[in-house]
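Order emerges. As here.
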Amino acid sequence: MFIPLPNVLEHAAYSTLYQAQDAVTESYQDVQDQPRSIIKLQQRVSQFLKVKEDKVIQLIPLDQVIMIEAESNYSSIYLTSGVHIFTSKTVKYWIQKIGEDHPDFVRTHRSFLINRNHITGYKTADRIIILTSEKYAKVARRIKFTL
């Protein structure tokens, strides 16, 4: 014996079917958009320095980095907030992480990597760059530095 479904159940079944189709379509579009979102994420992550300090990984925005100073096989990262981070990485390591052709960072001396956006002055006689937060960086003789 066959009992027909009431209209309410039929409507519910059809609406569930259409919702499922919409969900599949949205998921498909999300997958298609995924490569673009991955590229955007990579661009955003490249604007940060990943620094490990005391078993904690910190993401530091590059615009907050005033300079990185070499101290033998270690380096110190000076931030605009006044924080000084001592790391076991060399300046060469940080240059590779930031990118050698990054427009905001320049290596003025083998011991200094500075952020151009934080330059406040230059003493030509002493070949010293004055940076924000009263930080100073040397300029090597072989480098022709102009503001």
